[in-house]
């Protein structure tokens, strides 16, 4: 097996492993949505404000997932390691 | 070589930037093969659309609204200034209302560009990064204006002097995460859309449209809303004056 093939394969595995980080934001956003539903159930008249805060909280919880996505995309489309073998 | 075959595979997502050769630029700059990134061209389209729409909406305004056009324009302006007032307080309404409204409309229309066959400019990190840099300087400006240079420097040793590195990192992390959030959300939609098209082949009939509705329209609304909300809350948090 040549070195380039090894690097490409390892990068593909690395991209897949990076996306395991998607677990975290999923759990976090699930909590966020569940708590928002609880809050709306307790106070239905505040549903607008609660939804707004929930979306912002979701966006913040998503950050780590987005970072892992960017690492995965870099490994797939703009691999920094391949340059060493050209 | 393996890389070439990987790159030349049938499956292409509009991942790497495409460049558009522009003949008139060659004459202007005197360079051969003058190219410009596709995301810049689609931003020009967005600017043109927004400019024309708001120019038409803002013409011949009367004190007492007579036309539906003016009612629509007043509703848009009132919506954004009310939103800014609600999020940042009444002092910021006049100063930040126009910027926030323009930013929201620009991001929203940029995200929709993917539906019209142009490249989505927000799926390019340099575009979202430049908007985040604007936010960074707005935060810096607000901190220095409300707290003075002394207050700004003091904010780094707040609450404890050993927090200096964390505070400095925090200042830079906010715009970076803001840029990457918009970029990652839109690019992931584009990549997933490309994968679905590739997997379905010539049977791509109804499913891509439904997914596009989610990834382009829903993401456009949510992400532009989140981007402007975060911009406003960062600026409002940077205000150090005691009310």
Structure characterization notes:
The complex is a heterodimer of chains A (86) and B (243). Chain A has 86 residues and is mainly α. Chain A has four helices and no strands. In chain A, helix 1 (3-18) packs antiparallel against helix 4. Chain B has a two-stranded antiparallel sheet with strand order 1-2. Chain B contains eight helices and two strands. In chain B, helix 3 packs across helix 5, helix 6 (125-154) runs antiparallel to helix 7 (164-200) and helix 7 runs antiparallel to helix 8. Chain B is mainly α and 243 residues long. Classes of the chains: A mainly alpha (86), B mainly alpha (243). Chains A and B meet through helix 1, helix 3 and helix 4 of A and helix 1, helix 7 and helix 8 of B.
Q: Largest sheet of chain A, described in full?
A: none
Strand content of chain B: under 5%
Structural class by sheet pairing and helices of chain A: mainly alpha
Mean pLDDT of chain B, to the nearest integer, reads: 80
- The H-and-E topology of chain B, N to C, reads as HEHEHHHHHH
| Overall residue-averaged pLDDT value of chain A | 87
Question: Which helices and strands appear, and what pairs or packs with what?
Answer:
The complex is a heterodimer of chains A (86) and B (243).
Chain A (H helix, E strand, L loop, with lengths): L2 H16 L4 H20 L4 H15 L1 H15 L9
Helix pairs in contact in A: 1-4, 2-3
Chain B lengths: L1 H6 L11 E3 L1 H7 L5 E3 H20 L10 H21 L4 H20 L12 H30 L9 H37 L6 H32 L5
Antiparallel strand pairs in B: 1-2
Helix pairs in contact in B: 3-5, 4-5, 5-8, 6-7, 6-8, 7-8
Explain briefly what this protein structure is.
The complex is a heterodimer of chains A (86) and B (243). Chain A has helices spanning 3-18, 23-42, 47-61, 63-77.
Which characteristics define this entry?
heterodimer, A: 86 residues, mainly alpha, 4 helices, rod-shaped, B: 243 residues, two-stranded antiparallel ribbon, 8 helices, 2 strands, 71% helix
């Amino acid at each position: 097996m040549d070195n380039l093939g090894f690097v490409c394969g390892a990068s593909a595995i690395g991209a897949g492993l990076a996306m395991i980080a998607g677990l975290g934001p999923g759990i976090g956003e699930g909590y966020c949505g569940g708590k928002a539903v609880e809050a709306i159930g307790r106070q239905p008249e505040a549903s607008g404000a609660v939804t707004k805060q929930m979306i912002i909280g979701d966006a913040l919880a998503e950050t780590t997932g987005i970072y892992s996505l960017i690492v995965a995309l870099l490994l797939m489309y703009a691999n920094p390691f391949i340059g060493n073998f050209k | 070589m393996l890389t070439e075959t990987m790159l030349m595979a049938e499956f292409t997502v509009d991942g790497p930037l495409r460049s558009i050769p522009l003949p008139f630029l060659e004459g202007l700059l005197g360079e051969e093969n003058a190219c410009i990134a596709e995301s810049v061209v689609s931003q020009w389209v967005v600017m043109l659309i927004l400019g024309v729409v708001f120019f038409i909406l803002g013409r011949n305004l009367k004190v007492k609204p007579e036309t539906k056009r003016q009612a629509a324009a007043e509703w848009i302006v009132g919506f954004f200034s009310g939103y800014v007032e609600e999020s940042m307080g009444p002092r910021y309404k006049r100063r930040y209302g126009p910027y926030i409204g323009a930013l929201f409309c620009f991001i929203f229309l940029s995200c929709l560009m993917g539906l019209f066959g142009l490249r989505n400019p927000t799926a390019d990190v340099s575009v979202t990064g430049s908007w985040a840099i604007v936010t960074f300087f707005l935060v810096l400006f607000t901190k220095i204006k409300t707290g003075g240079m002394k207050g700004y420097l003091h904010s780094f040793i707040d609450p404890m002097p050993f927090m200096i590195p964390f505070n400095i990192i925090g200042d830079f992390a906010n715009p970076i995460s803001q840029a990457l959030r918009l970029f990652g959300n839109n690019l992931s939609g584009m990549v997933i859309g490309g994968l679905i098209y590739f997997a379905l082949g010539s049977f791509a009939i109804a499913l891509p449209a439904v997914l596009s509705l989610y990834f382009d329209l829903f993401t456009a609304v949510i992400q532009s809303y989140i981007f402007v909300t975060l911009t406003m809350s960062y600026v409002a948090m940077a205000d150090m004056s005691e009310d």
